Each structure stands twice: as C-alpha cells, then as structure tokens.
User: Fold these one by one.
Assistant:
Number 1:
Amino acid sequence: MAKAWATLGVDLHVEPTGPGVRRGLTDALREAVRSGRLAPGTRLPSSRSLAADLGIARNTVADAYAGLVAEGWLTARQGSGTRVAERTLPQPAPASAAAPRTRDPGRPAYDLIPGSPDLASFPRTEWLKAARRALTRAPHDALGYGDVRGRPELRTALAGYLSRARGVRADADRIVVCSGFSDALTLLGAVLRRRGLRSLAVESYGLDVHWNLLHRSGLRTVPLPFDELGTRTDDLTGVRAMLLTPAHQFPMGVPLHPDRRAAVVDWARRTGGLILEDDYDGEFRYDRQPVGALQGLDPDHVVYLGTASKSLAPGLRLGWLVLPPSLAGEVTALKDGGGWSSGVLDQLTLAEFITSGAYDRHVRAARLRYRRRRDALVSSLATRAPAVRATGIAAGLHAVLQLPPGTEQSVLRAAAWQGLAVHGLSRYRHAAAFTEPLDALVVGYGTPPDHAWSGALEALCGALG
Amino acid sequence: MAKAWATLGVDLHVEPTGPGVRRGLTDALREAVRSGRLAPGTRLPSSRSLAADLGIARNTVADAYAGLVAEGWLTARQGSGTRVAERTLPQPAPASAAAPRTRDPGRPAYDLIPGSPDLASFPRTEWLKAARRALTRAPHDALGYGDVRGRPELRTALAGYLSRARGVRADADRIVVCSGFSDALTLLGAVLRRRGLRSLAVESYGLDVHWNLLHRSGLRTVPLPFDELGTRTDDLTGVRAMLLTPAHQFPMGVPLHPDRRAAVVDWARRTGGLILEDDYDGEFRYDRQPVGALQGLDPDHVVYLGTASKSLAPGLRLGWLVLPPSLAGEVTALKDGGGWSSGVLDQLTLAEFITSGAYDRHVRAARLRYRRRRDALVSSLATRAPAVRATGIAAGLHAVLQLPPGTEQSVLRAAAWQGLAVHGLSRYRHAAAFTEPLDALVVGYGTPPDHAWSGALEALCGALG
C-alpha cells in the first residue's frame, strides 16, 4: 500500500492474495470514485506500478481497471492513461426523503378491524407439508412461464372444491387464478371498460378500496338501494353489470333475499347483464349450511370471485375467477398481455392442500373457532351492553353492532381510548348511497389471535358500556 | 325412497343417517333441478311427507328446502307450498367452446428458445429448506395485507445482495417487489404515461412482449440505432426515457460500450431523463467479473429492474425495482391502488435463500453449468459448422449464431425438421429499427435440462451443417 496510493491520497484495503483480489480491488476503487475520494479526472497509476505497489499480479489490476471502464467509473484513452471519469458526481440519495412510509405507525393494543382472518391460526405446518409434496411432485416445466390462467393442478382442484362446497358450476378451463380479489376485480374492471361500460352498480355498503379499483378502471360506481332485506333489486334500469356479495353482504351480514336472487338472475338473462359475485367468506356460516353461490343459478351471466384471503391468509395473494364462456377469452387475453400472474409454488401448494383434504379440515376448525368467538361476542354484549343489537351474525368473520342514533363517533373515540382498533359502519357507506345512515360498529371478531381475543372483547364492551 | 319421489319421477340417493343427510339431500335436490329432472314449477312434497318417505327427520328436509330457497333453486309461497323456481334453465355451458387454448400443443423434442434457465436445476431441496425456516420464523402479521412494496425482509436482503453483486446503490425503502419483470415494466409504463410521456426509446433488438406491455400503457416505442459496439446513444434528441439492457444486450449479447454508458448517464443528468435498466441476467458472466449495473453510476436517474426468472425460475414470478427517490412515491401509490402484489411466502423464502448464502451457491453452480454448455456449443460449432460465428457469448444464457445472409428461414426450417425449437434473430428486431437485418439464430443454451442438452446441441449442429 505504498507509493501509488500515497500519490492519490487514498487508502485501499485490498487483500494481496486469494481469488477475491480483483474483486476486492474493483470494489475498493469503485467506492473511492463514488465517494469522491478519487476526484473526476484523476489519473490512476499504471497497472504495472499499482500491481508492484500492492504486490499483486499486473493482470489483476488491468482487469479491475477494465471492469471499471466498462461500468463507466473510469475512462481509458490512448496516450492519457486511465482516469476517473469526468462527470459530476451523483449526489448521495437523500435519506428516504421521498420514500413512502411504512403503514404501521404504532398499533393499538387490540384489533377488531374486519377483513382479516386470525393470522395466528394459519396452518403453517400443514402448509409446509403440502408445499413439500407439491414441489417434489411438480414437473420441471411447472416452474417456467406458464398458462396465465394459473396452474392446471390448482384450477382442477378449485373446480372440484367450488362445485362441492359452494355449488359453483366450474370448469377448470374457465377458472383464472389471480393475485387476490383486488387483482381479479381490476382485471374485470378493465374488461368491462373495454366493452364500453361506463358504470357498475354496487351495493350501498361495501369497501371503498374495491370501488376505487373500479374507478381506476374508468368505471363509475352507482349504489343500489339497501333495506332490511338487503340490497334492493327492483329497479335495475340502465344497469349493465353489478357487483354483489350475495351469500353474506359485506359488511351488513345479510344474505341476499331469495326473491332478489331470483330477480337479479332474471334481469341478467333478460338483458344480457353481468353479475360479479364476491364470495369472500362463503365458507363461514354457523347456524346452517352456507348459502350456495349465485353463480350456480346462471353460470352464463355470473362471474364468481373467490379468495384464499379469508379462509387462509391475505398474504398468499391468491384469488380466483370462474368466468362465463363469453368472458373467458377476453380476460385471459388481457391477463396475457398485462404481466399479471401469481407464483406457481403457492398455486401448486394450494392445489395439494385442497386435494389432500387439508383445506376442508382447516376450514372446519376455523369455522368452529370463529363460531365460538361469535357466541362469546353475542353473550358478552347481552350482559354488558344490552342496548346494542348484533346483526349479520349468522355467517362470516364480522358482526354489525347497531348503536343508538348519533353515537357512532363517540363510541369510536371510546374504543380508541381502550386501545381498540375498530371501524364504524359509516366508512363502509357509499358516498352516493340514498340509504339512511345507520350508527353501528363493524366488528371483525376473526381478526385477533386467540390470546388477544378476550382482551379485545373486554375493550369492546368497555367502549360500549 | 318411496311415494314422494315416485310422484316426482326422480330417484335420489340420500343416505338416511349420519351428519351428511341434510347436505346430501340438498345436493341431490339441487342437481335434480339443475339437470332439469325436476322441472320449473314442479311442486315438491311437503317436508313432512318427504321426511317420512325417506325415513329422516322432518327438520332435515325443511332445512334442505330452506337452503335451496335461499339459493334461488326453489320458491316457497304461502298457500302454494315449495316449488321448483320458475325460470328458464341455464343452458349447459358449451364445452370450452370459447375457452382459451392451453399453450402447449405438442412440443418439439429439443428446446433452445432463449429466456428460460434450466428448470430442472431449480434447487428444490434448498428452496424447501429455506421456506421452512422462513415460514417458521415469520411473525403472524407477515401473512396479512402488507406493505405493497413487498416484505421488508426481502427488500433488505435484496439491497445487500444487489449492492454486493451488481454494484447497485440500493436502499430497502426504494425497492419494490413485483410479480416478475413484466409486472415491473407495466407499473413503470403506467407511471411514465401519467407523467405525460408519449414514447420511450428502446433498443433495436429486444422482446416484443416488453414493447407490447409499453404500448398497452399508451407509450410508443422508438428504437435507438444499433451497431457493432451495441446500442448507439449519440442522438437522443427528444428522448425523455429509455429501456436498456446495459450489462448484456438482449439478444445481441454485447455490453453497452463504456463511452455509451457515460453518454446515457450524462444525457440523463443533463435533461432529467430516465433510464430503465433491465438487468435480466446480470449474474451470468463467464470470462471476467460481471459488468456492474449502470444504476450505480447514477441512482437518481436510473431505475434498476431485476428478476429471479433467470437466476432461479420464471414460475416464482418475482422481480424487483430499485427506484430513484423521485419515483418511489408514485410507483408505490400506483401499486397500492392497483391490486398488484406478490405472495409473501415466496418473498420470505427468497429473503432467507439470499441471506443464508444459498442464492450465491446456486448462482455459482449455475454459472459453472452454463459456462460448460457455452464452451461445448462453441467447440461443436467450430468443428461442425465453421461458417457460423457465435457472438454475445461472454455472458448470459444464450448466444447469437450469425448465419450467411439470406439463410435464417431455411435454417429455422431445418431446425424444425430436427425436432428443435429455436428462434431466428428477426423476431427480436423492432419493426421500426433502421438497422440492417442480420441473419442469425438466438440459441438459449440455458433452456434444456442436462439430459437433453447434448441431443439439443446435436440437433442444432444438424440443422446448421
């Protein structure tokens, strides 16, 4: 580390022997240029003299120089030797100045926000076993660029499962695997927009994140009226497509009334309309058999949308569409050109999880656990907050707690004081809904892990009491 | 199975006892309605009489009826009993008439199409081990809806790896995990379009699937000229952004000449232009250290795009962006609202794979294997087809075999006769390129599994000989 570097005023730490010499020298020089310790225009020692100084082979130095010339850090010109490139140095990037924040700025003690299952009950061991079986068995080409509709193993497993568990008329050829419900809805929004639709009917209550996805696709969302029997379907003039949660309205929790199921299917047949059926938590019904999917009544006019986000975990980012024949080609073509697709390993694992029966076992165990929570919620409310009426509790992972008029905001504040994260119903109401606003909490009793459940329930009762 | 069903002319198979009775009856009735065996309007026996006939509890029948009313298959009206719903029966979906075809209509014996690594060498055992460690260690909330930029574990691992292996200046906060390169490019295309760009400069040779993704985003692609030193960068008038493969031009195989690297970085600084750096196979270079990423020279104007598709497998659908601070917020916001995201389990597994050193070991082994194949290709050509010149062979998983002028199509036909799938260079040439067309094959020697490699090479030499 003598003359040559002394001249440059740079101290480099380069091990003189071993396979990493060239690499070490390259990295050290690059860093010296990047940091400004070697200024633009600086002439470097010849490779011969630097090699001698460092006690390493001349070729090693020449290679390192050549690599840095190729990368643009140095320049080599006939007659002027090797120099640091003449270029304004890049300013160090401001430390995350424009970087987006993470979403988790200190969380409350208890979480009853709906939309997530109990993540602590994700069947990790069973999932890993299924992953091992699936990956061991998969043909090599399963790991390549594949069918944009998703792996055939998963589409076949879903066709069987959905037919059996949800009454869906599913053909593996018309199932398209997506990165969760949002991806599926984005895809459908794009297809509808291409077909010339400008708007989509939605329910008066729902998730604004879904409405916003549709808005991004260029579709307005027009809320259908809502009454005590659920979404009203008596006036569908001008509607060409609608998004519904027929088995379990989100968040109100009622199933679509049988007459209205009949009405929307008749409407779809009569007008060629399209129904997007969001079956987000169809597996979870407690007091009787789940209401089967609307899609079974008319697979030519209903698009079925399902997801693993409630039955397993949102982090899997796995959802699926069952498409009418008239839409299958368009959706596949759009997906094909759009770069959308899901990793095959989770797809193969879910296929194995379903066909081995592990999925059914998991859903049964989860149903039992959530049912117990629901029962605990209802009985706690009966004693601790008798003025509060729990509705929408026959199914799903959440309940609507109806509050005395005008009290939603004060209850939310009381909940925050109790360290409880929970949502009011008002945030699920479409801005254009004609429905009279109701004061209520939407309580996601599926969300907390077991160990936090009783504390969460206590905090809730405290906020309501 | 007596009177009641005899009346209806329907034979149902319902087990009379056990927990599945209601379910079995429901399914059987639904199927009878669906298939038309129970015609619309048919009045069903009373629950009392059917229960007696079947020897099951009356409540079970009543529940099954109620479930099917709720689903819309039956109707129940005061005074007219339970009937099959009056509705035209859905026509059975035509058997996959409009369904898209799968992409695999009988494959050739050998595959030298570029773009895929050897899928047989995917490190299944090591990957499963990493998956087990990752999933065992992951906090529960990792399985929920998370940061749209991807799991922090993976972004941190990538920041370290890319800095070390590719000279990328990466901050985990500005890394965004995507579903492969296509997803990343689609996202960037949308952001550029929103910024008002109407076109993007691309290279004269490249992948039409990428150009088409950009066209879908509303951007024209304008090819930059190409000569023996690679893509020309001397006239960038009017260019605001460009997509390049600086380390290893695809498919020509040359690195971007150092002067031109300098020129594009200077252009970007001077004009505020943006360079999208596609570093698709940056890890694979055989005769010297890989050329470092252009992004290291100017992280404020270069977006780095990487992928696991070449180093591991396309089926993982994992890619990543390293974004300049000025773009990070926009890209994250767009992704946030767009439903794009990748499964967390593969993300956690890849993070573990990288940090445990398994990724480095895998890349080293793969590099050795591909290098041997390249050497075998070059020496076979030297003896069997001396008129053919192999270029672009210093790096990557493919070579360009330059053919005598006017012979590309006939060589492709000869290859097909040999049962060999291989591409001509003409399909990688941008339609608007001014460059003189060259006759050549683009040979993906990384593609076949080991056992098929020598056969593929033999077929190739046969087609060229």
Number 2:
Amino acid sequence: MFGVEQGAGPKVVIDFEPIGKRLYASLGQTVMQAAQGLELFEHGIGAPCGGKGLCARCLVRLVHGKLSPLTLTEERGLTKEQIEHGYRLACQAKVAGPCKLEIPVASLVGRQQLKVEGCQANVAPDWCLERYLVTGIRTPTIHYPHSLWQQIEKFLKEEYNQTDLQVNMNLLRRTDPAHYGNKVCVVVSGKEIVAVTAPGSDYEPLGVAVDLGTTKIAAFLVKLETGEVIASEGILNPQIAYGEDVMSRLAYAMESEENANHLAAAAVNGINQLIDMLILHHNFGIEQVRQAVIAANTAMHHLLLGLPVKQLAMSPYIPVTTAPVETTGDTIGLRLGCQAKVYIVPPAGGFVGGDHVTMIQASGIDRLNSVTLGIDIGTNTEIVLAVNGRMTSCSCASGPAFEGAHIYHGMRAVNGAISYVELLNNGQEVVWQTIGGEKPIGFCGSGIIDAVAGLIRCGIIVANGRLNPDHVRVRAESGKPAEFVVVPKHDNGLDVDIVITQKDIGEIQLAKAAIASGISLLLKTQGINEADIDKVIVAGAFGSFLRLESAIAVGMLPNLPLERFAQVGNAAGTGAIMTLLSSKERCRAETIARKVEHIELAVLPEFKREFAKALKFSVL
Amino acid sequence: MFGVEQGAGPKVVIDFEPIGKRLYASLGQTVMQAAQGLELFEHGIGAPCGGKGLCARCLVRLVHGKLSPLTLTEERGLTKEQIEHGYRLACQAKVAGPCKLEIPVASLVGRQQLKVEGCQANVAPDWCLERYLVTGIRTPTIHYPHSLWQQIEKFLKEEYNQTDLQVNMNLLRRTDPAHYGNKVCVVVSGKEIVAVTAPGSDYEPLGVAVDLGTTKIAAFLVKLETGEVIASEGILNPQIAYGEDVMSRLAYAMESEENANHLAAAAVNGINQLIDMLILHHNFGIEQVRQAVIAANTAMHHLLLGLPVKQLAMSPYIPVTTAPVETTGDTIGLRLGCQAKVYIVPPAGGFVGGDHVTMIQASGIDRLNSVTLGIDIGTNTEIVLAVNGRMTSCSCASGPAFEGAHIYHGMRAVNGAISYVELLNNGQEVVWQTIGGEKPIGFCGSGIIDAVAGLIRCGIIVANGRLNPDHVRVRAESGKPAEFVVVPKHDNGLDVDIVITQKDIGEIQLAKAAIASGISLLLKTQGINEADIDKVIVAGAFGSFLRLESAIAVGMLPNLPLERFAQVGNAAGTGAIMTLLSSKERCRAETIARKVEHIELAVLPEFKREFAKALKFSVL
C-alpha cells in the first residue's frame, strides 16, 4: 500500500461496510488514514479536497464503536439529519477504539462503469520476433560439459549465424534445463532471447497500453504481434485519495518530496493493479509483457515520473519536458516482464498531454482535410480544433461535476446512479433510469446533464440559471436555496428526496461554460464560425455516455446537426494501443505532439468575457 | 538487512561486545539469528558450517543475562575451559532473556586487512562523453513557454545537430531549472543526457569495478574518462553467514528459493555497502556512477544473479551460462546512478570464473609467449598454465585454512593476528609479528605457513606431518594430539598458549596438497616439467602477503628460483577495472573466457594419486 500513515498508538480493529473489509488502525489515526489501508483503487474513501475538511464528501457512518468527538468542521459540513444518523467526515473523525463504519456508496471510491473500449485501432503491428528451432540438445555430462544455454548459443551461431544475443535475465533465472527435450524453440526480440518453448507450444509477446487520467486509469492487454486487444480494465486513479482535481494534487506534491512520492507510488500501484487484473484474469504470465505505453495528461505524466511540478502548477504552466520518455518497468516500478520497456507518450505542452495526442491520433484528426473539433471530456477537458491539418489545442478545467462531485446528490457512475432523466408535461412528471436498474441513490454526470437540459426545455430554469420557484416540483423554503425534486424519498434508496439544487445548476454552468468558452476561443483564434465545423468528435468515458441533445441544450456542445457528431469513447486509450503496436504510430504521435499549437486560455485577454458569456443558458 | 529471521516471541535487548551494538531479538531466536540484525558485512558472527553446529567457530561469551541451556552439540564442540568461561555456540544458544554477549575477535566477521590495490591497470579508457555548451537560456514566460529541457533540446538540435537524445530519468527528476543561469554545459553519453552543469564546473562519470570473491568483496571507484582509480575498499562477503565455502552456500541455495534469495541479497547488499563507502567517503554523488563491472567466480556469479545452481553444484559442474551478462543496476538491485549499466564478466566454465578471466587479463598471461603459471590463491584457488598462449585452467578447493578457518588458533588477518613467524635455533626460539603490532590472539594465513615452514626446516615436522614429540616446545600430553607452542600464555592476548596443533598441520597439508596437485596435473596435461616454468604469477590478497620461501618450503608452490615469481596482488580486481574502462578490454576478457580450456580435476583418473603424493612434506 502507499501513503499509509503509521500511527504511533496501539492498533484496534475497524470493520468497513458494505465492502466487508477489516483492518487494523492506530488510535488517533483519522478514519481517512485508516481507510488508506484498504486497497484504495478497489474500495476506499474519496477526498476531493485532499482531506482538508472542505468538501464534506468523505462521509462515513458510525454503525457502532468509538470515534473522537464531533469537530467544528464536521458540525459546519454536516446536516443536522446526517449528524443524527451518525454520519462523520472521514478526514476529521479519529479512531478512538474498535468500530464498525459504513462507507455510503456515494462517498465510496469504487470500481465503476468505465468506458475503455474506445474506437478500433486500425494499425498494422510491426513487432516481429524471430523464432529459431534448436535441435540436438543433450544432457550435459563430464565429457559433454555444456549447459542448455551454451548449446543454444552454439547452435544459433552455427546454424543461423546469430551472435551476441543476450538472454533475458529472468529467463536465465527461471529456466530449468530438465524441462526441455532435445528440441526447443528459441524466441528472439532484437538481440534479446525472451523465451524458450517446446516446439509447437508458442510464445506470445504481450503489451499493455495505459490511459492514465486524472480520475480514471484504463489499461488494455494487447498481443504485440497480431494487435489483438485481449482485454481491457479500468479503475479509479488511486491518487484521488490525495485530491480530486489536478491542481490540488499538484499542490499536494509541491508540499514535500514525500508527498510527491506518495502520488507517484499511487499511480504506479494503480497501473500495477490493472496489469495484475489483466494478466491473472486471462492466465498469462507477467513475463510475457515486453512493452508498455502510457498516455497521460501532462500533470499525471509528471506525477507518475516524479518530475518537478512547480513550473507546471503555476503560470505560465510549463512542463518539465515535452520529449518522449523511454525507460524500463524496473526504473519506475511497474510490474512488467523482466527488462520490459516503457514508452511514455510526449505531452504537447501545458495541460495538453500525451492522452490528447493519442486521442487526436486514434480519431485521425491530424489527417483530416476539414474543420474538425475534437473534445475529450473529463475532469480536465482537452479540445483541439483542426483546420486542414493545422491543430490548435487548449485545456479547460471543467472540473469533476461530470463525475458527480460537487453535486448535492451527485455520485460516480456506479450501480444506483441515475444516468438518464426525462421531464414530461412541463416537468410535472420525471422519468429516470439508474445504472444496474437499482433504486436511485444519486446522479451520475449524464443524469445531471439530462435533468438540467430538461429543466431548460421546460422553462423551469431561466437564462441566468435560477429555478422558477413557482413550479410544482420546485421547493423554495424561505432562506434556503431552491431545489427541484427529481425522485421523492419514497421512490429512492436514500432517506431523503433526490433533488437538483440551485448550487448544482451553478456547478453545471461552470463546467459547461469552461468547455463552451474553450471552444469559442479556439474558433476565434482560427477565425472559424461554429457553423463551419464539419465534424465534432466527442471522446472520453463520460463523453460516450452523454446524450448529445442534452449536452447541446445545456450549451456544452456547439448547436450543430447531430449527424456532425461522433462519440468515439476512449480514443486516448486506442491511440496508446496504436503507439504500442507500431513504431510508425509512435513517430506519428511524436509528430502530433510537436505540431499541436497549445493555447493557454487563462492568458487570453478575451477569456474572462467569453467565460462569463458561456455561463448563461440559451433558454428557448 | 537480509536474512533476518523474524522470531514470533516478544523482543528483548541484546548488547554485543566489543563492537558495542545493541539490538532487539525475539525470545527463542538463536544468537546467530539475532546477530544477523548486525550489519553483517561490518560486524557479525561467522558461521563456516552454515550454522549447523559442526565447526564450533561461532563462539560467543555470555557476559550476563539469560540463554537457553547448553546443548549436546555445544558440549561436544566446546572445551571444558571454554564452557567454564561462559563460551557458547551462537548457532545453538537461544535467547532466553535480555543479555550482554561478547563476540571474540577470532569469531568476529570484521573488516580486515584486504589487499585490493592489485597491479597497475595499463589501459587507455575509451569512454568518451560529449559536452555541449548551451547558451541563451531564458526563464519561461507566458510569451516564451519553454522549459529548460525544451530549450536545451532545441539548442542541441539547431547548433550541434544532435537529435533523439534521452534525458536520464533521475536528471529529469532532480533538475531545478532555477539553479541554472543562461549558460549550461550538457554532458551526453551516447544518446543519453547524463548531466547538466554550470559551465566551468565539470562532471566526472564514475565506474565501479567489483571483484566478488567467496570470502571477500573488493571494489574500486574509477574515473571512467581518465582511468584514475580514486579509491578501493574491501569487505568480507556477507554470504559467509550462510556458509564459508562455495559448496555449503550452493547447498544452502538449493534448499529453497527463499535461501537462494537470501544469498543473492547478501551479495547485492555487500556490493551496495562497498559502493556507499566509496561514494560517501569521497564526496561523490551516486548519480555519477554510470557503469559497474563485476568479476566473480562461477558460484558467486550464479548466486549474485539468482541463477539455478543445481547443475553447478553437482558433477559435471556446469554453469548455467558462460556468456557475458549485461544488465542494469535496477534489474539486480545494485545502487548505482539511475539507469546505470552493469556488466558481469563471463566465466570460463565449471569453477573457473570471471575473476580468473580478469586475473589472466591483468597479468597479461594470455599474451605471453612462454610457459607461465598463474595462481590466484583463495578459498578456491584457480590455476592457469599458459604455454605460448594456450591456456589450461583448473580450480582447487584449497579451503579457508589460509583465512584462519579450521585452524585451532587461526583467525582472519585482523589486528592481533600473527602474520609473520620465524623459528630460531632449531625452533627453541620463536620470533613473530602481529598485524597492528598488538598482542597476538591467533594466526592469520601467512603466519601459519611461516610457522609450518619453520617446523619443517627445523625438522620438528617429519614427512608424514607428525610433530616430533621430543622437541622442547612440543607438548604431547598422553591421549591428546601433540601441539607446538608458538606464543606462551604470558606473552599473548588470550588466556591460553597460542599453539600449532597436529590437526592444524593436517589442515595446511590438505590446503597445500590441493594447490600442488592442481599444478602438477596441469603440467602433466601439457607435458611440461616444473623446471620449464618461466614465470609464476601469484595473485590474490593472501598470495601477496604470503612469503614465497615459506610457501615453497611447505610445498604449496613449485620449488623454483624466487626471481621467477611475481606477486601481483588482486589481479582479478585490476582486470575488472580494465574491463570497466575499455570496450577493447571487454572483448579481450570475452576472448580469454572462450579460449581458456577448463579441466575438472576431480574427474581425472590420476587426481587421487597426485593429491595423496602432494600431501607429504618434502623434509630437508
């Protein structure tokens, strides 16, 4: 585990429900620290604010046992109702004895519906391994004192004129000559002998392509010679425990070298966890993994490699390097085959990272002779505008609202999350669907966008974003901000009505304004009108669950005919796969990284005005 | 620490004297296990037999406190006197409470007089680093958003046409752009940028050459560009804790993978400890170390790399590989500069290892057009006979007697060890010298050889090795084996007379017979007479403290005029340095490894007869 704070005090048992995990915590540790003992990337408590008690998102409920008294921060952050029900903030409450705690699904950092398939990688793999049949192998004797490897070396030299081959260290360590007959097949990659098999049984070199995002990590297991994608897995980025958005993580990393190491270890552990899942679930050997490619946004890139982040965190937001990094699993701590190589896709600059590069690559934006807009929606949303091959990109801090964060009843896209909402007869009726068809316990991103879009269409929201207090489903108790009831208490899995609050609408306004202003500023810099856009490519996990009509209605996406849009899923991951399989594609990625012109929105004079304009809703 | 057995019981404090180390041990742990908590390579308890209670060498004295009752093994292994004085065997006595234990110097695995300088490495280094002056570096701004590395990359490309350079990962991590002015010097090794310095202050790439022996590890810190040897250090091989000779370590490794890992870790830790000493004591940065070369005998080679040893441990004694191994510090756990390379000199075969190869290389035996005998004396003694360039080698198990092991008053060459002995008037008087001029507490190898040689010259030993019981200094109490008193109680630092026993003489006979029979068998196989030997090169630490006259007198070395002998010190280490500095020398080492014909003495029919003959002393 990473980042486990070693409490000095004696240890007590803590049971975490509903995940049914038991672990030992030290008296005096915060629940958050104790919970870091959980496999954070499987289960755990999210701390968007980095455990500072600001976001009140790390809710836990004391079922029985002993915690430290309620702090002022908690009294401020929790509702009376919550306090009555025994809810606490994990970052504030300290372990005062053995206890049983319930982590509400909504604050659980859990496995979730991750779109990782992405679009098809159309690329011809240029990985080629040589296979040599070696015959006449004998058991060594006093009169024939030659080991298996010596015999293989001799044979390859004499029969195939292959010299100066290096045997992979792990192969040397693991190979038991007794297991082989007088014939073997020797598999050579470049100048390295990577496998020895019995003739007939073949060896398949594998590669792992990783899309390392701020919120999610997706990984793909690929057969290097055929290009076949065997499996894909996605987990939440364990770094979430140190802050939900890029900036709070960079700030955490800058506090101390130890913090920076925590974050690097978190990312490495997350990727290793994915690799284990991919390998074990499919009965491959880790030794088959010869190569990994990682595409990450610039901040994740720096935090993974442990690069200094000061320059990146502050204006003018300069990455340490925009060169491709080639290293080994051993060097950065990834569990791959022995001596396996790791290639990290170069960022284009600022906050336009390698994942943006591979998104452009996979969706072919760099090769289109038209006006194309590429949008990779996430906690950070990267946008590229390509006009006949000239590409200009920017990054917008759209924030984690689409992940359900900062939304009163928001949650990640796990079972029970409302993913679809439709308002009927002027919003008097609401139709909804949840992931897994379970009783609703909150909204995930697409559900919120649907709801807000509906509220706009029905005129329940006015241009400035206010809720019409006179609507039948709008509650506006005096002094309290208005809220729209989507699912009443009796229909849902909580003990309160599920609502959209005035504040939630504000969050969506901020998020969509970030993206909309980014788009309009890109268009301006290239003198293009929205109507001239031939194609809009919407990438990213959220982007592919999103209903375009709703996104257009809230003003997040340009108001264009639907047929001009394409939702391509995790294109960044697909591009990483292409880079993994083909050296040509690797060069292409490096070219894209060099060619993309990167615009820092924050430094544009028009930025504030555009953003303010984009905050408005265009009510019908 | 490696190999620390975690006892289950509660912990108690143990003080170790005279080294003044305190550590916690679990009740029920043997003292040996507890002592593994000591930095074994600095201080610790030697266990030649691997802690099986056979060698009775792991003496400790209970000063006060509680140990388990005396075991039968201890009663057998210890003298009445020793038991009265509270001596115990560390591998038998278990911790029964807090206690203070004294580790007698003689059983202390300590730093010792190690001859590591060796002969001069006459080789032209072909390491060349490029240095580029990069000017006009600016602090990045919004309008000039380029990091230090981006500016360097651009400059190197435009001014020097250098492209595709990789920045060393650690350099990326550690470099703070703020520390540099507008001019820097960029140091490039191959395609890797290894350093950025302020112009003027230069960067010196360092290398470490390691001679990994069964008993000792010697390491040399070298400036790669100039070839200057900055420093050398030697320590005992920490693997000694798992067995003193090669065979008991191989046996230990074969017992389980865990054991094998203990041994690999022990060697790695030992080398890392040496590197730290070399680097820290001379105020260099570990990052300067770009390359390491390791020369080891075949068993150490296998145990270090964690290769399977079954084939090597049993007839016909086949190494897994005799190819050179090129890897990285990261892969095998050596603490070097980030991404630094490690080259392991190939063994010639069987028990003729890479250290023998580099010994031949450094002493130039492969280039002599004459009859040359090369002897590298150690726990295993390797011998090469070169006849006009044709080299035949063998390895003899001369055993650890020269290290003082298996000798009643034997000890390692640490302060207080008798290193020189001369017998006057027919052995009635004895003149001696100790290392460090301290009161004698035992013999190191050269002292024992001197003493036995003297006994032979004075006719106190007869051909079959018996001591003349009538001699004034020979004690032959009835029933007890005879012993020759070298230093009476009142003159020495022990509470008993320091003696040479009949058994000691037997040990020396075995050791010298191993070497002498090896020499004569090599001569036979090439049809050479002893007298035809033009040159005898005596290498190894012990070999350079040895007095040739004594070695010839005991029949260990051929009876030739002294001017034909050369004592070259640690030639194996010197060869490792040459291999580190020059790729030409690397090729030369590989050629030697291929050319050397390796003879397995044990399988020769005449072996037993030759050995029996060699046991005799040639009395005058």
